[in-house]
Amino acid sequence: MPLILPGNVASATADAGYDVDNSCRFNGSDSYMHWTDTGGSGSRVQFSISLWCKKCSNGVFNPLVLGYQDGNNFTNLQFNASDQLQFYNETGNQIKGNLITNRLFRDPSAWYHILAVFDSGNGTAGNRMRLYVNGTEETSFATDANPDQNESSWFNYQDKKVHLGYDTGDLGWAGSALAFNGYIAQFMLVDGTVLTPSDVGEFDSDSPTIWKPIDISSTSVGTNGAFLDFADSDNLGDNEGIAGEDWTEVNLDATDSATDTQTNNFCTMTPLNVFQYNFTFSEGNLTLANTDNNWNGASGTIAINKGKWYFEAKYTGSSNLQHFFVGFTGIAAQNAADATRNSVAFYNNDGGEVVVSDVSNSASTTADYGTFAQNDIIGVALDYDNELISFYKDDAAIVTDFDFGAATYPSGLIDGKLLSPYVGHYASSDIALNFGNPPFTISSGNADDNGYGNFEYDVPSGYYALCTKNLAEYG
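-> C-alpha cells emitted (475 positions)
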C-alpha cells in the first residue's frame, strides 16, 4: 500500500500538480464537527466518503465519520482499538454491513487517503461496501459482511446528525464519547454517487507507488453532501460543496487550522518512541502531558542528518519547570533507561545548562545560561553540518552556536546518525511543540525563508521548518 511519509522524499518532490494547503487538527478529546440533515431528501443506499487523515494515536478508537440516529442505528467509518480500518452499518441493534481490514494502521507520521463506498443497491454483494486506501482497494478483511441489497444506511436520515471526528459514546465501542486525534484534509461526503479512486486522487507518473491528491473542489456532492477544505480558519466547517450548509465546529478554533497536509507533511511528536514512561499525547501529537513522577522523554516523527532546522517549545505546566529538557536526540542509539541519554538539550535546572550525553550517559554540561518560566517560548535552532545548536527564550538568544561536537563532549551523538526533535521532563508537566503548526495561540506569525511554518518568533536566517518540502530541498 503506497504511503506518504515524512522520510519519503519521492512524495515531496513528485510533480504534485495540486497542493493541499490546509487541514483541520482534532485534539483526541472533545473537538469535532457535525451537520444536521433537515431535508431528508438524500440517498440512504448510496454514498461515498473521501478524506485524507494523519492518525496520531494507536490502541484506541479513532472515529472518522458517523451517520447517527441512536446507539442502535448508525453507520460509521473509524479506526478501531486494534488500529484496523472499519466500515460499519447497524440497524435495530443488528449488524447490516461490517468491513474490518486485516491491515493495521499504526504510523503516526503517515498521511492516509481513505475512500469508503456504500452502494447497497448493487447486485453484487461484495460491491455493496468497499474500502480503498491510497488508491488501492482493500481486499483482505478480518470481517467481511456486506449488507443485504437495498439495505439503508444512517446517512441522510432526516433531522439526525452526521459527525466528523466524533463517536457519541453510546455505540458500544468504548462506553464513552470518543474523538479523533490527528489531522483531516479534503473531507468529502458525496450523496447518491459511487466514487472511484481516480475521482479523488492519482498515482504519480514518475513514482507509481505514490498516491497524490487532485483538485476535487468542483466535484458534485449531491443533495446532502459536503466538501470541507478547512481553508477558512474562522469557519473551519465551511461547506464548499453546498453553500449555506456549513458544519458546526465543537471545541475547534483558528488554532486548529493547520498547514500540515498530505502534500507538505510536518513533524509532530511520536508516541511510538517514548523513553521510559508514557506521555499523554493530544492536539495532533503536539501537546504532551506527563503525570508520572519519573523521567520521560519523546522524539519527533522527522529525523535529519544534514541541514539547519528550527522549532519552538512552550512549557505550559505550572510545576517542576527545573526538570524540563528540549533539544535533539540521536534516534539511532536510543536507550529507554534514562530520558536524558543520547541527546543535546537545554536543561532548565537552577542555572540553565546545555547537556550533551551519549548512549552510555556520560554527560558534559555548560551551566549558567539562565532559566525560563512557565509559558516562555523556547526556540531551538540546530546546525547539523557544523554540530552547533542555539536556544532562544522569547526571541532573545540564551545560547548561541553551542559546539556540541567539540572534543570535550561525548562523541557518540552525531557520527552520521539521524537526529530528531526531543523533549524530556520529570514529574507532572504539560509541554506544547510548534514545528510550524502551533497548537496554541500566537501573537504574531513568522515563516521560514521558504515561506513554510507559522512561528511566534523570527526563524533564524538559513534555518527551516521540519516538513517534507524543506526535507526535499535541504534534508
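The longest strand covers residues 94-104.
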